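Reopening this ticket.

The earlier resolution said the output was attached, but the attachment link was broken on my side. Pasting everything inline this time so it's all in one place.
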Amino acid sequence: MKIKFSHALQLLAVAVVSAALTSRFVDAQDSEEPPLTLTHIGVNVADVDTAVRYYTEVMGLPEANRRYDDEGNLILIFLQLGENSRLEINPATPENPPGLGHFGVNVPDLAAAKALYGARGAEVSDTITSPSGAQFAYVTGPHGAVMELLQTRSE
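Inline output:
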């Protein structure tokens, strides 16, 4: 099977980000940096059914869950990607064209992480609360890469 050069670059980027975050998590245990744990990779797709069929049937990733808005429209589908990570499949839109959309990391304190990164000059979005109660914000890097900071709701 041939892999497109752009897809190979995206996979390489995901591998580099994952390795960097793993290293930062170990280093963060001895510093003031918030520990970052990779939780998911978000991909925007033009055809959700084809993408899900590909990743489940060809790649063998089991479907974890689906999320819908209040009107019953599909928002996203999570596929299990390893023990602690997921592949997030999102319908592409004009604002979120097909391709690698973002990578998500878990943070223990979203407000503190936003304040820290904002003070360092990062472009940080407002906080968003999902229907499940999770809170998140987006940090956009200088070259357009988007990192989702995610704080799951407290039990």
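Reporter confirms the inline version is readable. The chain has one domain: 5-151. The first strand starts at residue 37 and ends at 45.
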